[in-house]
Automatic annotation (TrEMBL):
PANTHER family on file: AROM/DEHYDROQUINATE SYNTHASE, PENTAFUNCTIONAL AROM POLYPEPTIDE
Species of provenance: Halomarina oriensis
Catalysed conversion reaction: 3-phosphoshikimate + phosphoenolpyruvate = 5-O-(1-carboxyvinyl)-3-phosphoshikimate + phosphate
Stated name of the protein: 3-phosphoshikimate 1-carboxyvinyltransferase
Quaternary structure (record): Monomer.
Main function: Catalyzes the transfer of the enolpyruvyl moiety of phosphoenolpyruvate (PEP) to the 5-hydroxyl of shikimate-3-phosphate (S3P) to produce enolpyruvyl shikimate-3-phosphate and inorganic phosphate.
Amino acid sequence: MDLRLSPSLLSGTARAPPSKSYTHRAILAAGYAAGATVERPLLSADTRATMRAVEAYGGTVTEDGDDRHVEGFDGRPDVPEDVVDCANSGTTMRLTTGTAALGDGLTVLTGDDSLRSRPQGPLLAAIADLGGRAESTRDNGQAPLVVGGAIDGGRVSIPGDVSSQYITALLMAGAATSEGIRIDLETELKSAPYVDITRELLADFGVDTEQTDAGFEVAGGQSYTRDDPYTVPGDFSSISYLLAMGVLAAPDGLRIEGAVPSAQGDTAIVDVVERMGGDVAWDRDAGVIEASRSALSGVEVSVADTPDLLPTIATLGAVADGDTHITDAEHVRYKETDRVSAMATELGKMGVETTEERDSLTVHGGESDLTGATVDGYHDHRIVMSLAVAALVADGETTVRGAEHVDVSFPDFFDVLDELGAAPTRVE
């Protein structure tokens, strides 16, 4: 599906969707438990892949209105009867690869063509070092994967600059081993707040973890338990698009609900927008952000811990006066697509000057005139939404290809745009 957008003025109230990161972890944690209820999970293509994986390992996921009740496998996953299809969800594949390592037999995990191109090698090597079997069928560190071996735990070293999800997978599985797992980081940890999210959620499910001088540790023999329902907080990666809409296209202000503080690193988007000169007020107690159209100026921003914010910041930089220099960005190239190159290419089609280097993207807003164009979403929800935001302030009509991929994290994104006054037109 393609989507056409014209320059628009927005106003009103929007609610942030539930956090994708927390939903993945909560559903899987409930699977590791005897059972638990997850309130207001994000229901998207990615999180449904995790729900299917939990069922493949012997759990059940039951719909209860907006909530999901999980009957878990209590730390002892079954060997799936069929291949575990993770679709486009890298989080599902990496986190449930750790689950597969606990099984007595072998699990095959795969996904779509995009997911089959993403790096899994460091996690496979770590599982093998722990005594499990962990192989890429093509021997290239990419899915399809064959994983098993009923690991007991132990000590392992792993790079921290490729994906924090490797650490999350080992911490979540390690609690269910007999010996526990100690993780030594070989390099500086990128996307560290995502490990903070994991540790926060594990504590909510009764699992203790520790940060050590060398990395992280989780003791074995722990049980996942949760008596009260677990409520998923709002998603700040998604809030970034709503916030950008406010400071770019809402002269009378935009109200964003569901912005409750949490361990999410992407809460940094509020500070970034304020540094750029955005008119933003965040009532943390109420979980409400107010944002109004503002004159923005370029800034330098590191995305070492917030890779998902790069597309949003690049879009803001296209409108800002001066240069916006996005640094520490090499790991952003290993997402659903190479997001550094994708944003440089597609903003270029809209008349934006950029300078792309291996580890950075500089957007020359002062040298750019944002104009409508036909742009490609790269089958990537974050590229699609960022380009849609750019279209709101471009001169002329913009067509975004592959708009359906917003279903990965913000299924109602275009309905929200419509309610706020943008009137997007779907082109099948």
